[in-house]
Amino acid sequence: MNEGEVIKKQQIFNEIERHLLNDEKPSIFLKEFFMENKDNFIYPFTMISDLQDVPQEPKHHPEGNVLVHVMMVVDEAARRRSLSKEKDILMWSSLLHDIGKKPTTKKRKNRWTSYDHDKVGAKMVMEFFNALNCTKEKLIKGVSSMTRWHMQALFVINDLPFASIGEMIEEIDIEELSLLTISDRLGRGKLNPSEKDKIVHDVNFFLEKVSEISGYKYKKIH
To answer: What residues does the HD domain cover (predicted)?
Structure first.
């Protein structure tokens, strides 16, 4: 990678981060950047733009492809940004949390699935930041961990065998994860008020279950 490419990628990174940390709706900039301007389709940012080619099961994601969902999640996260202790980690996680769906999405039994996209995505997050020569170790580790654990609330709520509360507690700030979790759950199409209320209830139930294991009382999400 020549010096010009390094500078261009750093400029893009800085511009994205500026919008993630300051905009009321970062998706306004991000949609134009990732969906309309093909000059921006350079690695590793293609790891994000490629998500517009990844379908999702309409039952769970009536909003459309993965990138459409991610844009909605980013805006939901921006609404909760002031509650975060690590705003850069939360906002980059909202953008990158489903990055693992590109290699894992397959049609099984006539429905779209993305098994292990959380684990695969955690590794891809590291690849993304390494390709930018990013030296923000706390950011890199934080976003990778948020991506790795962003499905845990669903597993815990539904008492699924994929839940791993003990390991999760050791690796991540649960209250920060809950901000990503609720943004992820609300960042989808056609939710009515009762469905939104249920999502808030479910995330708080997740926090209660984790509290029982950790012995720490986590703040409720509202």
So the answer is: 70-186
Residue with tokens 């808030």: 200
d(CA 220, CA 59): 28
Residue 105 is predicted with a pLDDT of 96
User: What is the C-alpha separation between 136 and 41, in angstroms, rounded?
Assistant: 23
Q: Tell whether 70 is covered by a domain.
A: yes
pLDDT attached to residue 140: 99
List 107's β-bridge partners, or say none.
Answer: 112
Report if residue 128 sits inside a domain: yes
| Any domain includes 221 | no
What is this structure's pTM? 0.95
Structural domain that includes position 209: 3-214
Closest C-alpha to 112, from 60, 151, 163: 60
**Rounded average pLDDT over 108-134:** 96
Q: What share of the chain has pLDDT > 70, as a percent?
A: 98
CATH number at residue 110: 1.10.3210
Classify residue 17: in a domain, yes or no.
Answer: yes
User: What SS3 state is found at 67?
Assistant: helix
Count Cα neighbours of 187 within 13 Å in the Cβ-side half-sphere.
Answer: 28
Q: What is the dihedral of CA 194, 211, 126, 52, to 10 degrees?
A: -10
Q: How many domains does the chain fold into?
A: 1
